[in-house]
Specification:
The chain has 115 residues and is mainly α. 90% of the residues lie in helices and 0% in strands.
Length: 115
């Protein structure tokens, strides 16, 4: 039970401390609101869920890497910057993949609803 509680504390810390985590959670809520409204299939919902989990997981990893780097050094060091930038890049790549997937799934349905 303790590992579960500790993990939840980590997630809550990221939600409270990281603006991007809150944006990802709001985006996830919007994705699932659209999925319900546009009546996506179970398969499409699973694909969307996979992307949501991937983006949020990577944001958690990014936060942990930033904290670990900050713990080691407060100085501006090229390797510290690279570690943070690469972790942020992983989140960006997943976010773009998620956005493209959402456009592919929602785009035709939105088109039909709007036009």
């Amino acid at each position: 039970m303790r590992p579960f509680r500790v993990a939840c504390e980590g997630i809550l810390h990221a939600v409270r401390a990281e603006r991007n985590m809150r944006l990802h959670l709001i985006s996830a809520l919007l994705v699932f609101t659209f999925a319900i409204w546009l009546q996506t299939s179970v398969r499409e919902n699973l694909i969307l869920l996979g992307w949501v989990v991937a983006v949020i997981s990577l944001e958690l990893m990014n936060t942990s890497i930033e904290r670990a780097v900050d713990l080691v050094t407060k100085d501006v060091h090229p390797l510290a910057k690279q570690a943070k930038d690469v972790a942020a890049g992983a989140v960006l790549v997943a976010s773009i993949g998620a956005a493209v997937t959402a456009l592919i799934i929602f785009g035709p349905r939105l088109w039909n609803v709007l036009y």
